[in-house]
Amino acid sequence: MTPDELLDAYAEMVLIRRTEKAAHDLFMSGLVKGTTHLAAGHEAVAVGASAALHPDDYVFATYRGHHHALARGATPEECLAELMSRSTGLCQAKGGSMHLTKASKGMLGSYAIVGAHLPMAAGAAWSAKLRGSGQVAVAFFGDGATNIGAFHEALNLAAVWSLPVLFVCENNLYMEYTPIEAVTAVPNPAADRAAGYNMPAEIIDGNDVVVVWETVARAAERARKGDGPTLIEAQTYRHFGHSRADPAKYRPADEVERWMKHDPLDVARARLEALGVSPDTIAERDRRAAATVDAAIAAAKNAPEPEPAMAFTDVWADGGAAWRT
Amino acid sequence: MADVKFTYRDAVAEGIAREMRRDPSVVCLGEDIGAAEGVFKTTVGLFKEFGPGRVWDTPISEQAIVGAAMGAAMTGMRPVAEIMFSDFLACCWDYLANEIPKARYMTGGQVTVPLVVRTANGGGLGFGAQHSQAVENWALAVPGLKIVAPSNPADVVGLMAAAIRSDDPVVFFEHKALLAGSGPRPPDDHVVELGQAAVAREGTDVTVVALASTVPLSLKAAEQLAGEGISVEVIDLRCLIPLDMRTVLRSLERTSRLVVVEENPYQGGWGGTVVSVVADEGFELLDAPIKRVAGANVPLPFADSLEAEVIPTVDKVTEAIRRLTAY
Ligand SMILES: Cc1ncc(C[n+]2csc(CCOP(=O)(O)OP(=O)(O)O)c2C)c(N)n1
């Protein structure tokens, strides 16, 4: 990454962190209902990977997908509007926090059934291969997903069909409240399974945006050459609990402290300073991100709720919901 | 070739082949569908004609098959996925219940999923409880899926064309007990629009609403009853979603009596939906109670004699019709 690219990546991570803080605050003030799964702490995975992908590559994420949607080009305003059930929301308020999707930017959805989207990503990669388009598909998922059948079916299919797909595990050490090591037969829940599918795997520092970028770029290159899928286990940590209801009391204090000191924003800032980028330049990007998110909050708050008739649109491709002729 | 028998199983392969010739984005995937030509021989000739680039053999991975079909459908292809026996849909039910039918809705219309999941459905061949179920009612419980279940070879071809061309996801139930049956080969570019029921036999005394395997069954019952002076109209629904209730209600205007014949279990069967619409919108058309002849609420037993005990038979249908005409 050039200093400018790294600066952009840093700014993108700050924008995501700020948007997630807004989501948290809006939830606390009763303006976001349901639940949110914040990805604060995971930003480097989404931003590093997005920087390494082409604009027309495909991305599939989980219910913890705010960072992927934003990194892929969804705006803070449309994301916050979606969370606040506004008609200007990314999915016209029919998706919500767990389903952020921006198909026009290759962000093909956030899926709330653990592991379900891994076969879909394999399918999108299969489609790219059939069309000879040179596109790559990426599935981001949690460590918990590695124990579900769809993970194994997707890896095997991707390997035997040599598909241009990247499986990127955000290993944050916990599924909901249970440490992943307590329920998994191998120490590295994703990477240790790769050998069973004859697939190359890498374990990386998922909090270093440069490392993520380099790894994903290499794997994507491999995939585009026709050399098949790669499994990447990015080690990271979530700053908050699993979802809004969870204060994350189950995590040892020293573990939390250790990871908080390895915040992806700090890691990137240190890299920028080492490259000679001035603190003022960095602060300027911080300010811009803050202003963008403040404006997004205001705009989303002022947007109208969806018309009730919207409940009956878009079941079918003709735009409607008629089940009888 | 007019004298060569055109079977229901030929019609499946022919229907797919016609669409694959027409549209290069149509691709097939499933277990043993390639060189082996399908365990039910419903993909005969496809691998030979279209090759491994368009007809893909998969591992035994029902989630991967339907999940990959979904991903491909979202990105410009029109996949036709085979799930060998419809019972196995349970292994990938997440995709049919949670993923495929909701993607368009919950993204506010951003994503379209034009795929077909084909599967061999129903009893009658003595495969036992885990390979014999009629499960079209499973799909009926999920808003967002179109459901096709043809009863004859010409409809297989015509409905396959409509299903593959549909921009919506379609579950296509091929009935195992009908595979060997034959009928006329439909003309080129034969398309049967989804959601158009057919009047398989005209009659004036009783309307029988049937689907797939229960259509020939009901026609046989109608034939028998004609000898007793009872005139039976048989409606072949062809699709459950979209559901053509107009044709049913119009028929009841003439007959005023309704029997619904479905192979899936009575509990939660599609007949319940047909009957509830008639009760809601056509109550005045009726001169008698409605009868449902349906599968019993038990797993399907193995022995022929036991199976006949629990799924609809010609005798059960004639009996229901006689009782209604005598009411
Ligand atoms: C099939 C399925 N089972 C259970 C759940 C409930 N659930 C939601 S998130 C979650 C934990 C997933 O953990 P992980 O895959 O590590 O992802 P993370 O939340 O850490 O990003 C569980 C069990 C679900 N959504 N889907």
From TrEMBL, chain A:
Pfam families: E1_dh (PF00676). Its cofactor is thiamine diphosphate. Keywords: Oxidoreductase, Thiamine pyrophosphate. Residues 12-308 form the Dehydrogenase E1 component domain. One of its GO terms (biological process) is pyruvate decarboxylation to acetyl-CoA. InterPro entries: DH_E1 (IPR001017), PDH_E1_Alpha_Subunit (IPR050642), THDP-binding (IPR029061). GO terms for molecular function: magnesium ion binding; pyruvate dehydrogenase (acetyl-transferring) activity. This is Acetoin:2,6-dichlorophenolindophenol oxidoreductase subunit alpha. The lineage of its organism: Bacteria, Bacillati, Actinomycetota, Actinomycetes, Micromonosporales.
From TrEMBL, chain B:
SUPFAM superfamilies: Thiamin diphosphate-binding fold (THDP-binding), TK C-terminal domain-like. Residues 6-181 form the Transketolase-like pyrimidine-binding domain. The keyword Oxidoreductase applies. Keywords: Oxidoreductase, Thiamine pyrophosphate. InterPro entries: THDP-binding, Transketo_C/PFOR_II, Transketolase-like_Pyr-bd, Transketolase_C. Its cofactor is thiamine diphosphate. Gene3D superfamilies: 3.40.50.920, 3.40.50.970. GO terms for molecular function: magnesium ion binding; oxidoreductase activity. This is TPP-dependent acetoin dehydrogenase complex, E1 protein subunit beta. The gene is acoB.
